[in-house]
Amino acid sequence: MVSFAAGGFVLASHPMLLQDIFDKILQNISDPTLAATLKNTINTAVQQRTTVGLVGLAVALYSGINWMGNLREAIRAQSRDVWERSPQDQEKFWVKYLRDFISLIGLLIALIVTLSITSVAGSAQQMIISALHLNSIEWLKPTWRLIGLAISIFANYLLFFWIFWRLPRHRPRKKALIRGTFLAAIGFEVIKIVMTYTLPSLMKSPSGAAFGSVLGLMAFFYFFARLTLFCAAWIATAEYKDDPRMPGKTQP
Q1: What single DSSP character describes residue 249?
Q2: C-alpha–C-alpha distance, residues 97 and 222, integer Å
Q3: Which helix (H) or strand (E) segment is 125 a member of?
Q4: What gap in Å lies between CA 10 and CA 25, rounded to an integer?
Q5: Of 29, 53, 82, which residue is a domain's last?
Q6: Separation between Cα atoms, residue 49 and residue 36, nearest integer Å
Q7: Cα(122)–Cα(235) distance, rounded to whole angstroms?
């Protein structure tokens, strides 16, 4: 809905583009009744762009807050010493939604920064090589790719470190936190690389051009949540020889 509203604002600000779309409809559709119906539908969508956009934003915000709440509760459940929640863990309704809203905004900002760093690191390497006139040195290209990959993984590491440190009520053990966060950072980089190669091929089909961005966004957050929960469970259940909770160890 937000995408359609954005398209409506673009068409409303560019009347020539809207008229060009109408001309294309008349040229490619022989049935005048169907062409008129499509024209009226587009006109209605453009006129109601503000309402559609606000409703879409409200639905997206509500869904995002609930998604963030479910993710936070799942991570907290895995990090608790006991499975059942104690009455002291219960939060007021408005406190829960406010906390989830702040966490969602923080997560979105962190994701945008992480993806921006990945994009900048990937595009800047060729500019630096060209500016320093180092194009003839072949071994520098894979070296710069590795540097860009390392920067991207480091940004991913900071993102997941914030998630695994900020969201649980009980602070995880440092060794498990460091290793689990590194595992999540590498997995997230793999997800980004796979989606970078699969999304362009998805957009080539007519249905992909219409809904590819929405499906890609849903797939991205699905795999992101699965990876986050898997690594959170790994952090919560990791055991080491120096762990006092290991069998045979006495509690201090």
Answers
A1: P
A2: 21
A3: helix 93-131
A4: 18
A5: 82
A6: 20
A7: 31
- At 205, give phi and psi (nearest 5°): -80, 155
Alpha carbon distances (Å) from 129 to 78, 121, 125, 146, 147? 46, 13, 6, 14, 13
What is the CA angle 56-104-87, rounded to 5? Answer: 115
The conformation of residue 48, written as its DSSP 8-state character, comes to: T
- Provide the domain count of the chain: 2
- My answer on whether 67 and 103 are in the same domain is no
Residues 116 and 138 reside in one and the same domain: yes
Residues 9 and 49 occupy one common structural domain: yes
pLDDT tens for the chain, 252 residues long, are 666 677 777 777 777 877 777 777 667 767 777 777 777 777 777 777 788 778 878 888 888 888 888 888 888 777 766 555 555 556 677 777 888 888 888 888 888 887 777 777 666 666 766 676 666 666 767 777 788 788 888 888 988 998 888 777 777 788 888 999 999 999 998 988 888 878 777 767 666 665 667 777 788 888 988 999 999 888 888 776 665 554 445 444
Beta strands in the chain (DSSP E): none
Q: 122 and 73: one domain? A: no
For tokens 């006495």, the residue is: 250
Nearest to 102 by CA among 55, 73, 68, 67: 68
Residues 228 and 111 in one domain: yes
Q: Tokens for 1, please give them.
A: 């809905």
Q: Which amino acid is at 29?
A: I
Distance CA 187, CA 223 (A): 10
- If asked whether residues 146 and 203 sit together in one domain, one would say yes
Which amino acid appears at position 9 of this protein?
Answer: F
| Length of the chain, in residues | 252
